[in-house]
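The following block was generated as part of the benchmark described in Methods. Ligand: NAP.
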Amino acid sequence: MANQRKTTPADAVASTFAATPLALADPALFRGFSYVDGRWTAGANSRTFRVSNPADGSHLGDVASLSGDDSQMAVDAAQTAFGIWSSLLPQQRSKILRRWFELILDNKEDLARIMVLEQGKPLSEARGEIDYAASFVEFFAEEAKRPNIESVTSHLPDAEVEIWREPVGVAALITPWNFPSAMLTRKASAALAAGCTVVAHPSAQTPFSALALAELSERAGFPAGAFNVVTGVAPVVVEPWMKDKRVRAVSFTGSTDIGKLLYRQGADTVKRLVLELGGHAPFILFADANLDQAIDEAIKAKFATSGQDCLGANRFLVERPVYEAFCTRFSQAAAKLSVGIGMDDPDIGPLMNEQAVAKQEEHVADALARGARLLTGGKRHRAGRLFFEPTVLADVPADALIMHEETFGPVAAIAAFDTEDEVMQRANDTEYGLVAYLHTQDPRRIYRASRALQFGMVAVNRTKVTGAPIPFGGMKQSGLEREGSRLGMEAFTEVKYVCRDWA
Ligand code: NAP
């Protein structure tokens, strides 16, 4: 579908500004304006906010800060586009999504570099995130062709019954800074595949990745208004969406506190909600596990994304016979991790902001005050203001903050256990239920523990479990619904039942 490209004069300024400092192969991917109704816009008030590189605090660019009225206009555009987008053949929607997927991969290096500069993660992790982000678009480009039509044999005489899935309408997507590309494509490609149109708010700390994806969506040929990215102060942009009855579904990834707020705000207009919230993953190591493998996996489970990962292991619960060996070898491996700026591709980059670093300090100080042993790290890293040393604490008591709160950084807490019942009870003693890691060689224990763990995902003898075809999501206060897999489209569809008399 041909899509008329429209720009404001200010748009040209943004591209020029970006070209030199970032050295991108395609400087037009670096956008400083919101993308609404197929236009790049500074909003009615032309306000901006500043985005900084967490590695050194340098100024990356200013981005449009839209008003509540501007944000409402994005819903107007999405509502109008819904009529066009939802009436295309599924194959036509699939083709445009497929084109978007190809463009994301064609521009992988630029997208990864933009992400490193605004988010701080190591370059190879950023490249991995672009692959992961693209995989959702590819997956849902395929699913778009298979709207879930179920067939049921009629239970009534002389009647024919049909069950259809229809797109709900406009979907609002709100995404966090730790995975600024993948969290957006995981939601947007599922919603668009279902036939919905999208208004999206990326974190103000990492807006450039989302805006680059918007630029590529335009090149892919989405009709104007089908995919809108609205930058600005979160409550200013998002609250009008929560009140607007045309917004039928809201998909949010972020903290449990903001998730609860949106749950309350969505009640008045009975919105469908997808909530992907915080985690507090236990890493459970039994004495019969392969210790070498467990230590490698423990390093990944704790320190990937510099520890700023909802899947990050927060609590290491280790059976007593291997406790000291694990503490020694895990802390030695952690101490060897390199720390530095993302472009140099270290193991650990900077944290996102000052509050994140302060939280590491708070959790370390609290654990030590309650009798924990510091095995390595424990303080800010000399690489810069937002860097923290890879840190390992042993003998951490159950009442320490780190055993209950999401740490979201490179600090690991270890405690010993004696029995399977005890460790299952401790692992489940949390309101979070996103992922649990389990290491044991005993097949019966694997079965028992996988059943007993109250988590949406259980990783057995490995860390990486994510991917587009699997249902990602948490139990309890880690969220509602699932993303990825066929289930990822459910919240964006309504079920309609039709019963026809043919006598
Ligand atoms: P956050 O503070 O809850 O922010 C998430 C998003 O909500 C951002 O776009 C943020 O915008 C926006 N927001 C903030 N205040 C808002 C308000 N009053 N109304 C509407 N939107 C608002 O979370 P975060 O610090 O960015 O991300 C870290 C959290 O995300 C962690 O808890 C982590 O576990 C969770 N997470 C979960 C998953 C999962 O799939 N389960 C994946 C990744 C992360 P601004 O940033 O511009 O304020």
